[in-house]
Design brief:
- By secondary structure, this protein is mainly α.
- It has a domain of 107 residues: Receptor-associated Protein, CATH 1.20.81.
- It contains eleven helices and no strands.
- The radius of gyration is 26 Å and the shape is elongated.
- The relative contact order is 0.07.
Length: 279
């Protein structure tokens, strides 16, 4: 009974400490992600969601240091593991943003054609956008529904479209939004303008997909080559576990392993920078 009561007291104390340190940690992570937060705002990620993710990241960071330093007894490897956990949020958020932009780009091609067909069928531009919004999946559906919701609330359609365009800051959506706003302000055939825009978006999508396919093989090869040292370590451990124990169990062996991991990481980053082609 006393052991259970003591455990509950320890848990309560740790919980209260974490709660009190939460706002301080949130300010630290806000500075760490200051340059990425505007990109997250374009994806409608709230500060509350971000703070929750980063608190779990902080727990993982501390747990990694404790695991490698005190439990496994590998302080040099703890430095590298802590570094990987430290940079992981920025890498994962950048990857998520990139995938989100690709999905939006692909959805816009079909949405532009859908809005043009709706206008050609006799619907007004707001009604055509609303119809396409319900026929489209997220994330583009959320942005189109935001436009129709603001329009129904009494906001001019041009302003609603322009607000989403500025927040997303996506070339494909900028072209799509500019065609609609210019047509609304200066007049013209909306369906014809959107047809031309859709052709341009389809060509841009084709070129970007070709570029992604050309660089995908290089990225996969870089990943395979980066995993080779880990595979070799596993193979050598199966062949001679006693000798490999020297590598993991002595300070000199851990330093050698740290150097190898650093070289692998630098090589991986170098390959990604070479393959990071923009046009």
């Amino acid at each position: 009974m006393s052991l259970l009561l003591g455990s509950m007291c320890v848990f309560a104390a740790v919980f209260l400490v974490c709660q009190s340190l939460g706002p301080v940690w949130d300010r630290i992570t806000d500075r760490y992600l200051a340059d990425i937060k505007p990109k997250l705002a374009r994806l409608s990620v709230s500060d509350e969601q971000l703070h929750t993710w980063m608190r779990w990241w902080g727990i993982t960071f501390v747990a990694t240091i404790v695991l490698f330093t005190f439990i496994l007894g590998m302080p040099p490897i703890a430095l590298f593991a802590a570094f990987i956990v430290f940079i992981a949020p920025r890498y994962m958020i950048d990857l998520w943003i990139q995938r989100h932009r690709i999905v939006l780009r692909d959805q816009l091609v079909r949405a532009t054609v859908g809005v043009a067909n709706g206008c050609r069928a006799g619907l007004g531009l707001p009604q055509a956008i609303e119809k396409v919004a319900f026929d489209t999946q997220a994330p583009l559906a959320n942005e189109l529904k935001r436009i129709t919701r603001d329009y129904r609330a009494g906001r001019p359609l041009q302003d609603a479209i322009r607000e989403v365009k500025e927040r997303l800051d996506l070339d494909a959506f900028t072209t799509f939004a500019s065609a609609m706003t210019v047509t609304l302000e200066k007049g013209g055939n909306v369906a014809m303008a959107l047809d031309r825009i859709s052709q341009g978006l389809q060509e841009s999508q084709r070129l970007e997909r070709k570029l992604e396919a050309d660089t995908a093989a290089g990225r996969k090869m870089a990943l395979i080559l980066s995993l080779f040292p880990i595979g070799f370590l596993g193979l050598f451990y199966m062949l001679d576990p006693i000798s490999m124990a020297v590598l993991f169990g002595t300070l000199m062996g851990q330093l050698v392993l740290l150097v190898v991991l650093v070289i692998v990481y630098v090589s991986w980053e170098w390959c990604l920078r070479i393959l990071d082609i923009d046009f």
